[in-house]
Structure formats: structure tokens, C-alpha cells
Amino acid sequence: MIAAPAAAQKFSSLPRAKANAALVFPLTVITKQNLDFGYISVNAAGTVVINPNTSARSVTGGVLAMGGRPQPATFIGVARSASVVNIRIPKQPITLTRVGGTETMQATNFTLQGQDKRVLARMEAFEFNVGATLNVAAGQVEGVYTGQFDVTVQYP
Questions:
Q1: What does the buried/exposed string (b/e) look like for 104-133 if buried means 16 or more CB atoms within 10 Å of the residue's CB?
Q2: What are the pLDDT digits (tens) for 72-124?
Q3: Rounded CA gap, 51 and 73, in Å?
Q4: Tens digit of pLDDT for each residue in 116-148?
Q5: With the CA atoms of 33, 44, 95 and 108 taken in that order, what torsion angle do they form, in degrees rounded to the nearest 10?
Q6: What angle do CA 126, 26, 114 make, to 5 degrees?
Q7: Which of 9, 42, 112, 129 has the most other CB atoms within 10 Å of its CB?
Q8: Residues 6+ apart with CB under 8 A from 121
Q9: Dist. CA 154–CA 156, nearest whole Å
Q10: How far is residue 92's CA from residue 150's CA, in Å, rounded to a whole number?
Q11: Using an 8 Å Cβ cutoff, are 38 and 93 in contact?
């Protein structure tokens, strides 16, 4: 019996990669990541705090941290030239509402990483984090809660 040689197989590889870019015009601010309190469980009233300086989450009272990806909100701004920028975060509570329901929680005590007045030496990007405290009631209904808040950057 004569064996036929195995047919040579040709492999062709055309790897592809994506290239992305985001063009941000001077005097612009964009959201890099949203504020996320992560997964929590509640036995009694308490709070969840996201620290904008360390990105750490802490809980008080009957709130238990359950994982997830807790993080402060992060923003990126671009100044046109040497300038001073003033960053304003919420002073009033904002309401987070349960998706598919009417139940709510309040986010309060918004905190800014660093100073609210930044001096920029030249045209450059700057980044800052915003944290807050989530107030969780005893018997809070299970679900995903969402809300929005505004950050203002003034370029004098």
C-alpha cells in the first residue's frame, strides 16, 4: 500500500486591530467613567461612600459591600491656553430611582478630588474625580437604581 503525501495546507492570517481616538476641543469636559456605588446589601439603614481621592468604597450602618466595580465619576477637561478653571459639583442631593419602579435613594455630600480652582500653565488636559455618599434606607427595595448629576467647569 502506498500512502499519498498529506496535502500541504496553507494558512493565511490577517489579524485586525481597531484604532480609536476621541477628539476633544478646548473648553470641553467629557465623562470618562460614571459614579458607581457597586453591589450592596442592606439589613438596616446606612450609607455607601465613594472617596474621590482613593477610589475606595466604605459602608456604614446596616449596609454590606457585596462587590461590583465601585468607582468615583471621572471627568476630563481641556483648556485652550494658560488659564484658571473652576469646577462645580452638586451641593444638593440627587435622586436615584429604581429601574422599573418608583423607589428612590438619595446621593449627597458630593466631593471633589483636589481643588475646585485649577491653574493650568498651558493648553493641557486635566482630569478629576467626583465621589458622593449614597443614603440607603432600612428595607430598601432590591434592584438597580440610577440617577444623574451635573458637573460644571467654568473657564473664566
A1: ebbbeebbbbeeeebebeeeeebebbbbbb
A2: 999 998 887 778 899 999 999 999 999 999 999 999 999 999 999 988 877 78
A3: 10
A4: 998 887 778 899 999 999 999 999 999 999 999
A5: -70
A6: 20
A7: 129
A8: 82
A9: 6
A10: 11
A11: no
Does residue 97 contact residue 146 with C-beta atoms inside 8 Å? yes
Taking phi over 0 as left and psi of -120 to 50 as alpha, with beta for the rest, 55 belongs to left
CB 63 within 8 A of CB 40: yes
DSSP state, 81?
A: S
Cα–Cα nearest to 109, from 30, 47, 46: 47
The residue among 37, 119, 126 whose CA lies nearest residue 74 is 126
Specify the pTM.
0.82
Q: Residue 94: left (phi > 0), alpha (psi -120 to 50), or beta? A: beta
Give the sheet arrangement for strand 117-120, strand by strand: 117-120, 83-88, 152-154
How far apart are alpha carbons 104 and 94 in whole angstroms? 10
